[in-house]
Structures are given as C-alpha cells and as structure tokens.
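Lecture notes, part 5. Sequence design as translation. It can be helpful to think of inverse folding as translation between two languages: the language of shapes and the language of residues. The source text, in structure tokens, appears below.
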C-alpha cells in the first residue's frame, strides 16, 4: 500500500519546518481508483491544521526531509504526478 499526501510549507527556520496538509486529486487511475497517480489540488484554499517537524539532512546526498510518525517521510515534491495504490 502506498498512500500519498501533499503539504504546503508555511514557514521554516534552520532546523524546523511548519506544514499544512493540501488536498489531493487523482490524476490517473486503474479504472477503479485503487491505484494510479495523484497531484496536489492547488486550486482549493482548503488546508489542514498547521504542524511542525524537525528538518533532517541526509548525510549521503544532502536532501532535506521531515518524518511524521506512522505516516512516513515528507520530502519536496518534484512537480510530477506521484504513484499511489491502496492494495493490501
């Protein structure tokens, strides 16, 4: 199962970043909506509650990420559709 969420950065310091969750839309799917690609819905002003996370910097390539318990890694969006699936 690969679930996809998008977040807007609302502010940041050297070590901390604040996010708000952005709704997503299905870009393409398998005909049933169980697998495909998603994009953030940038046309809506709806956003989730603000939360903050520590910025982690990779020792390997210097990428910045944040970690959300039980949800996974938050990393910058590439601008391309992201694959998802809801299969168990």
């Amino acid at each position: 199962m690969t679930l996809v969420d998008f977040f807007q950065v609302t502010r940041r310091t050297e070590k901390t970043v604040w996010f708000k969750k952005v709704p997503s839309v299905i870009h393409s799917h398998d005909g049933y909506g169980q697998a495909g690609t998603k994009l953030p819905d940038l046309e809506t002003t709806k956003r989730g509650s603000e939360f903050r996370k520590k910025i982690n910097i990779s020792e390997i390539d210097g990428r910045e990420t944040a970690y959300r318990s039980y949800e996974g890694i938050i990393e910058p969006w590439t601008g391309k559709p992201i694959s998802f699936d809801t299969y168990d």
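The translated text above is only one of many valid answers, since several sequences can fold into similar shapes. The mean pLDDT is 95.
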